[in-house]
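Let us practice reading a record.
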Amino acid sequence: MADIYSAELNPGKLDVISAWLSKQSWAAEADVAPESLKKVTSYRFDDPEGKVGAEIHIVAAGDRVFQVPLTYRGVELAGADKHLISTMEHSILGTRWVYDGMGDPHFRQRLDHAIATAGTSAKQYRVDDEGNRIDEITDVAHAWGTGPLAGAGDVQVLYELNLDSPAEGSDAGLLLGRWAGQEAPVVLAVMV
């Protein structure tokens, strides 16, 4: 489960996402300025040790929809400089190192686990400044795995989403998502 603080972030999440998207060739020609991005939803994966935040953002830039997996760490991840996107000041947790999730072994392990076990995204709870859970806010996104593909290799996140892609009938290990306003499951990641 994930505890979500009502905290001030500097830079903000959309600023970090915008900076990362602007460097991706597959997002070329999309208006990814922070003021142009619209948050669609987000989901998280659990960290059994409670040390790494693994949050996946789904944002719209005009009629294009992007998925951006990020990890938040309280200390630098050794050997992962090329995957570091930003540092962020969190008003409650302090300095956070923000990484491209696909470059963070923790994120990749949690993504693989979700698909292999037909798992779900983490339950999310809004908490007060003292860390007390106020209410559950998990209903903004639901992601679940469909189980492993025999002999499968790596899992790949789909960075640009096709909201009309049929997810039914596939024999691949998939991570599917559905959220308010998106009734049909969307393919978020696939085992290749």
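A brief commentary: The two ends are 28 Å apart (CA to CA).
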